[in-house]
Amino acid sequence: MTLLLPPFLFFYAAIACLLLGNAKQRSIILIVVPLISLVWIAFTDTGSHASLEMAGLTLEFMRVDRLSRIFGIIFSIAAFLSALYAWHVKDIMQQVATLGYAGAAIGGVFAGDLLTLFLYWEGTAVTSVFLIWARRTEGAYHTGIRYLIIQVLSGVLLLMGLLLHYRDTGSLAFEAMTLGTLGTWLIFLSFGMKCAFPLMHNWLQDSYPAATVTGTVVLSAFTTKMAVYALARGFPGTEILIYIGAVMTLFPIFFAEIENDLRRVLAYSLNNQLGFMVVGVGIGTPMAINGTAAHAFCHILYKALLFMSVGAVLYRTGTSKASELGGLYKTMPKTAIFCLIGAASISAVPLFSGFVSKSLILSAAGNQGYWLVWGALLIASAGVLSHSGIKIPFTAFFAKDSGKRPAEAPTHMLWAMGITAALCIGIGVAPGALYALLPYDVEYHPYSFDHVLTQFQLLAFALLAFIVLMKTGLHPHEMKATNIDSDWIYRRITPRLVPVVGRAIDTGWSGITQTLVGLFGRGVAQIGKFSEPRGLLARGWGINSMVLILTALMGLVLLFNFGKS
Amino acid sequence: MTFSEQLPALQIVIPLLGAPLCVLLRHARGAWLVTLVCNIACTLVALALVAATRDGEIIRYALGGWAAPTGIEYYIDIVNATVLLVVSFISSVVCLYAWNGAEKEVPLDRHYLFYTGWLLCVTGLLGIVITGDAFNAFVFLEISSLATYLLISLGRERNALTAAFRYLVMGSIGASFILIGVGFLYAATGTLNMVDLSERIPQAESTRTVLIAFTFLAIGLMIKAAIFPLHAWLANAYHYAPVTVTALLSGTATKVSLYLLLRFFFNIFGTEYSFGQMLLNYILLPGAIVGFVVMSAVAIFQTDLRRMLAYSSVAQIGYIVAAICLVTPLGISAGIVHIINHAMIKAALFMATGCIIYRLGHAHIQSLGGVAKSMPVTTAAFIVAGLSLIGVPLTAGFVSKFNLIAAMLEKGWWIAAALILMSSLMATIYIGRVVEIMIFRKPRLATPESSGTREAPLMMLLPLWGLIAISIFFGVFGSETLSIAASGAERLLDGRLIEAVTATAAQAGSMEVSQ
What we know:
Number of helices of chain A: 22
Number of domains of chain A: 2
Structural class of chain B: mainly alpha
Oligomer: heterodimer
Strand order of the largest sheet of chain B: 1-2
Radius of gyration of chain B: 22 Å
Structural class of chain A: mainly alpha
Helix content of chain B: over 70%
Mean pLDDT of chain A: 81
Strand order of the largest sheet of chain A: 1-4
Number of helices of chain B: 23
Helix content of chain A: over 70%
Shape of chain B: globular
Low-confidence stretches of chain B: 500-515
Order of helices and strands of chain A: HHEEEEHHHHHHHHHHHHHHHHHHHH
Largest sheet of chain A: 2 strands, antiparallel
Strand content of chain B: under 5%
Low-confidence stretches of chain A: 473-495
Number of strands of chain A: 4
Order of helices and strands of chain B: HHEEHHHHHHHHHHHHHHHHHHHHH
């Protein structure tokens, strides 16, 4: 029975897929397995369900408690939805990678000890990279390598950290830790890398938009949220996280605003949303942890929905560049509506899912007296509104008519988007079910007067701008309207400064990374020169040189020791 | 005289008598059967010896009834009983595999010679391990080396001859160094018996003679154990030998030399002398560390699977040596555990490679596309063994690597621990690269030999998977190997075999009386 638990189930399915020749059968497996996993997780009692004594260590594979359960549930749902969305995919590489990736992420969430966590931590890295490589272009290959290096590096840090932690405490259990020792710092850093902390975030924007249409949807769900879970489990109430999170919510706005590729815009906004969750972890009160879990839950859904709709556009038109799109609502009305629902959710419009989760974090910040942070989050919310809530649906589906008349998204994509959209609205309208799943029992009513009012204050101007844009967007020279809209929202920041600062940081940062990557590449090439079969280190050394080395070594030893006797 | 008291002699006599039997039979399959039976018998004997020495017992067996100073003595404690078991077990498994594995690589009319060489090689290896006489160890070393040169030269490619020749020269230099070392020891102490040596060296240890003996032995053993930078013979030998032979050697030959190194420097010279005065770790450790980093990197860039695994072997030997250099109980037991685990893992990897060569006729990494489809069972075996090599939890490789790193951290060797992690990362790359090609790359072009590829014969897959199953078993239930290794480490660190004399004098006496 132990061997049939959800993470393993995914791996068996992945192996089965490797052996199955029929793409449709594989697609069915891809859809069914997450559902089984969902049922198992939802109906299993809390407690440890599988542990193993290994060489004096206890490995706990299946620790179900309320915190891990909600993440397990949403991961299963996300796996199901992305599988449905990817029904048309026949590429065995993507299908196997998706199963392995989802399994590793779910396994990581249920890991009761750091070693098991490490195993799955690396598991998500090596499986997910195939979703990027699946594009099979030269660029995607290099992006994948860069992505893999960062992800595996994060795993190595985790391993070193856990070894040190084990030495310090004698325990591998994955429980709340306090920063202080080198071990805990390394673990923290490793989580931070996967969670895309500021200055460690670049892999995300680099890789997610580079994956396949369906791959991005899968990628957006797991890796970073697994890191959020790990932070919530390992470092709740660590104050530094509040400030890291606040910075995370703010800085992607600059980039998202100037970005032309819609999938990259979404990647930046993903970063910004993670910031909210990190702030929640940093505050660490039951309400804040609830907020983080709830926000992760909702975020996975609406972010997937947005990536799905932009993906559908990319699938039909072959581009996701804002400048090449526009007016698609005429032939893709359903996709447009779903995109709007996703946009409304991410903008935290009342009655949509983002509202009920984000307000939990905002209230928690307010309750604890972090007013500065609260303000930052509010500004960030406005930023979200601008680039995800307005820019995405507007440039893709409305705005200047690009003349493209693509067909509506395929039926299975519509179904996937429809179910996701229904979940987004359902959670927004009736948050009780979601709240019941949360780690702590907290009495909370999102639809109180002041919450709704705050949110509407924020939304009012933006909605106004949105309507103006919708009305004028059909006119060819109204692209300027976007500028008006952003300077309305960032009224405290000089409008021209935004792109300049953004571009400066972007150029500087990419300059640094490019140099590093270049150096790394040159280093590898140099090693390769010595190491290839004809190279100095690897060709069969002649007897002469072998004896020469031997003699030298012997001389060294004698020289070393001769004075002693 | 009971049967069980003669076990130490049987360990050597069985394969030694099997070898001429093979020549007399002059029949390919018959020789195989003889070899298999001998190997299995050896494994059973070794198992009995492990059981007998498990609780710290020491067996001293005077060969032919001649007592120690005059005659040759076999000396068995938990350390070499374990190595005996590893050698004879790996040899049995690979022998089972050789039924199909060797048939395409070695001409059928030479099979009886092939198996004769095999048995002699095993005789030599087991002899090195079991003997308690320094000169006798050299004799067995020569027996195994000569047989090994023969086995390597049977490889199909012309390069096999040069590889064998190079190995012959380097191996002979190594063996002569060991002989010179033993000679100087005899000059300094007047004895060749290991127990006596360990007692008398302390009185003579300040002499230059012992210093010279030490140096020659150290260098000689480094060559035989392929410790970086004296590893260069290994890559060609492993690459061009018949892959069945490589599987056998990778699991046994270097491990036996490592055992001899442990025995000489911990027990005979003594820990204090070797590591305290002579600073042996300053000789071994730099090579070991540079070895496992550089050789892992070299493995990444190889184009032939066998060569890649050969360099990976040098890197793994580096781990073992680095662990030994810690000179702590934890470190040495990590080294012993890795000797056991790596023997199984690397033999399994070479066996999987052999399956591929059996069907494809080559092991060029770039041309392995589509292997996963045509040979799924072999590919799965390669992946599992590869994961174990990397050190993924639940595999044997993890148990050794975890203990290794824990031992390093215990001593505060942060950098070395980090470098081990780095080289594990490189192992991920070189294994992952092969697996990626096997699974995701299409077969290059449908050449006649690759289009009809199918799964390797059952007689190759069964031993392969048997070995993998056992290595997984040791990964999940690692405590048994760990406790054996821990008591072995205790024996090695404890000293100069001295208390062995007092503690088991009565038992040894009874054994002599009984003959």
